[in-house]
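Notes to self, isochorismate synthase:
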Amino acid sequence: MKPAVDSPPPLTVRTVPVPDPGDLPARLPHPDALAWIHHGEGIVAWGQAARTTIPGGPDRFTRARAWLDDLFTTAHIDDPLGLPGTGPVAFGSFTFDPAAPGSVLIVPRHILGRRDGHAWLTTIGEPTGDPLTLAHPPTPPTGLRWSDGTLTAPAWQHAVATAVQRIRHGRLGKTVLARDLTVQAAQPIDPRVLLDRLTTRYPACFTFAVDGLIGATPELLIRRTGDHIDSLVLAGTLPRGATPADDHARAQRLLNSPKDRREHAYAADMVRDALTPLCADLHVPHQPEILTLPNVIHLASPVHGTLDKERSVLDVLAALHPTPAVCGTPTGPALDLIRELEAMDRGRYAGPVGWIDATGDGEWGIALRCAELDPADPTRARLFAGCGIVADSDPAAELAEAQAKFRPMREALQG
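result:
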């Protein structure tokens, strides 16, 4: 079965240099925003030149690449810059569960980008007026009402305790349990407001928006630039302290924690095992380092490699997802336990999110620290947070960690 496709090939694509656009979220003219921003650079986009919804299944990344190859190879492309992210680009978001439907790729009509001193505007199709005219100024959400999602806090702690018992009985080494919160606003939630607040407060994260999924993930799943790839493995977390001295003490505790080091090792080892067959050389550090964000402290391992042959970034995604950082290990038993204990559909939370261009370059993160707007009611959204569970996990501590991970999106909504 082919993906459901609504596209008008061949596409006509024109990229032109433009003056520095300044704040990228502020240039989005409509609420139907697409975005990928890191330290103020990246791409934002709007409109739809083509779109596909990809069925669940083990070959979904292959299907996605085939659809894009057909679309991009027939396109008429005028791209004098030839940089990653110029020319036609597809934004994508895949469901966490490989069997679940709902993964999407969108080729926007307008793409505004800034990278390494260059700025550009790509238009797909015939231009219609000034695409940067602010047609609908953003309005911050008001009248927010919060409620539990699928599980209450005590019920989720019980699920964590159950997972710990399963792990201690030898069924698996680690699983990752997520919970959700629901928010209701007085009027439709404008993604541009959330993007602006997230990029301001979390510039070191990768702020994204794809088809109503908005967030700021600290985890770079894969970046492909030519034959070079980069990844950032995060696993092992503590909330930030109240003072610099407290932060330092917590960082040292994290580095010396057998529980967190074991959780991190599961994720780093899996990334090494997944990427080694694809690479001519690969560097994975022997010891993790500390990554400090405004809300939490992570154990982090930056990974770098060179691909052994031409591979799209989607090919590398297929090898990596789902990682132990968002699923557990071994993958099969961990995924089965998630389906049993979470009692919810994660949708695209904890799935790959990012972009790919016509050369196969792209950047993809894991959709963490995010919210998903309700497509039937844009005044409603679900927020997600998850924690890695191992044999010595404490349910109360995991709940506190989840609360800290909700903070970026709560702040973005509340201002």
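- Residues 90 and 287 are 35 Å apart (CA to CA).
- Residues 1-7 have pLDDT under 50 and may be disordered.
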